[in-house]
Specification:
8-stranded mixed β-sheet, about 25% helix, about 30% strand, globular
């Protein structure tokens, strides 16, 4: 994720000033041990799935007791009424005996079925508590179907409002949470699944999401756009946009692309957005030379007039606030490919290899920011070394005070997580050398494709690849509150 408005001093827009990297937005963190889970009330009685995934930063996000394998989401949005009507059908496997379990949903559910049979349910906050007629045995596969409706733009949960209305429709996108505003889910990146998304919108409008556009058809007075994601995906990396878009489709380098531009964009912003996004295949090829094959069969992007304040690495098709393409918002005249490089880098780091706990967000954002620096260097927009040296020399005491390896929930969006994360990656490259460094990146994304990774696992792989003991290095760069020595 990248914030449109920078947090760092001396930067007004992400990527605005040469010599200072653009600010990026963050996610969550936190490794919840047994004692933390007990204190947070996340330990459930026998036969009851936990009402949280065990993440110390967000104890109520996600759920325990099962693993979702596939979502089928149908969501119809009527702009005139600002009302969404949806149904989620999910397939899951029980990791324990379940006589009761939770899903995450803020819209009002009208019915829940488990294994085709009606189930009892209740709701409070973002928790949908489901009691099936018969307990589900450990290891059993089961299907849950939830029907729901409401006006999601009017719903706030602890300050989060990821559903934003627009002149012609709406968009729901956000990090760390957005899914509960449009589908019932196990809303934590530790539980990834495949998706079949069916968005319905009035005729004459478009409905955009992630993955491959598998078809369009009339359903009553609406048109259904079907999107298929066959690679595992975290819930926050799914998005839905209903509205008036100009859609551009094609193929480049064996990968399908689809771009969608809000027709409400001004002519100048649209022109700069098109110039930037159409270089996505070029950016992808550049990154693939260093990281290995692009993880997906689709890419592209969506540029929205909605006032999001960020760009987000939604899987295969990042979403960009139009602010990134206003005049002066990029290092290059007439375009901003720096933000494109950041979000495309996330397709490897964050999307294909996801976090188990939000405390490790520096891995996502530090690597994406560093690869953004590398792309800028390839375009003659400064050098990686100059970025590193600038912040090392001018960061100031407060810059080094945050332990970016565990920044805390309230600091996940702090620019230091991004910049210092990227500096850690560059310092590691200096420490182990280019050959070992790029071998490390390739092995990380290759061996963990469609899975997860932690800071500890990244450190161990770095030691294995380099043959060096790196405990002190990572401690100095990620967890101490002072500037490391070079």
């Amino acid at each position: 994720m990248r914030l449109a408005v920078a947090i760092a001093s001396a930067t007004l827009l992400a990527g605005l000033l040469p010599g200072a990297p653009g600010a990026a937005a963050a996610a969550e963190a936190g490794e919840a041990g047994t004692n933390t889970a007990v204190r947070a009330g996340m330990v459930a009685a026998p036969g009851v799935g936990r009402p949280g995934a065990g993440d110390a930063y967000f104890p109520g996000h996600g759920n325990g007791g099962y693993d979702v394998r596939h979502y089928q989401v149908t969501a119809a949005y009527q702009p005139a009424e600002k009302r969404l009507v949806g149904r989620t059908r999910l397939r899951a496997v029980a990791s324990q005996r379940l006589r009761r379990f939770n899903l995450d949903l803020v819209l009002a559910a009208s019915s829940v079925r488990v294994g085709g049979r009606p189930a009892r349910f209740s709701q409070r906050g973002r928790e949908l508590v489901v009691t099936p007629r018969r307990a589900i045995r450990k290891g059993d596969r089961f299907v849950v179907s939830v029907a729901y409706a409401g006006r999601p733009a009017s719903i706030s949960h602890r300050g989060a409002r990821p559903f934003v209305t627009t002149r012609a429709g709406a968009i729901v996108v956000g990090q760390p949470e957005a899914a509960p505003w449009w589908f019932a889910s196990n809303d934590h990146p530790s539980d990834k699944a495949t998706y079949d998304i069916r968005l319905r919108v009035p005729r004459g409008r478009e409905a955009i999401s992630v993955g491959r556009l598998a078809g369009r058809k009339r359903v009553g007075d609406l048109v259904q756009w079907r999107w298929v994601m066959r690679r595992p995906m975290a819930t926050y990396l799914a998005f839905a946009a209903w509205g008036d878009f100009r859609v551009v489709r094609g193929r480049a380098g064996g990968v399908r692309y689809l771009y969608a531009y809000d027709r409400a964009l001004s002519a100048g912003v649209r022109r700069r957005a098109v110039r930037s996004l159409r270089r996505t295949p070029e950016v992808t090829r550049f990154l693939a030379r260093h990281l290995g094959p692009y993880p997906y069969g689709d890419h592209g992007g969506v540029v929205t007039k909605a006032d999001l304040g960020f760009a987000l690495e939604t899987q295969t098709r990042p979403v960009y606030d139009a602010a990134f393409f206003r005049r002066g918002a990029g290092l290059q005249p007439g375009q901003n490919t720096s933000v494109v490089a950041h979000e495309v880098a996330h397709q490897w780091f964050g999307d294909s290899v996801s976090l188990r706990r939000w405390r490790d967000i520096w891995l996502n954002e530090g690597l994406a920011t560093y690869l953004e620096w590398m792309w800028d260097e390839s375009q003659g927009l400064g050098s990686v070394r100059s970025e590193f040296d600038y912040w090392y020399d001018h960061g100031g005491r407060a810059f080094w005070r945050l332990p970016v390896g565990n920044p805390g929930r309230d600091r996940m969006f702090d620019n230091r997580v991004y910049v210092r994360g990227a500096m850690t990656i560059h310092a590691l490259r200096r420490e182990i050398g280019d050959a070992a460094f790029f071998a490390l990146l390739r092995r990380w994304v290759g061996e963990r494709r469609d899975g997860h990774g932690t800071t500890t696992q990244f450190e161990r792989l770095a030691e294995d690849v380099s043959g060096r003991q790196l405990d002190g290095f990572f401690d100095a760069w990620l967890f101490r509150r002072s500037r490391p020595l070079l």
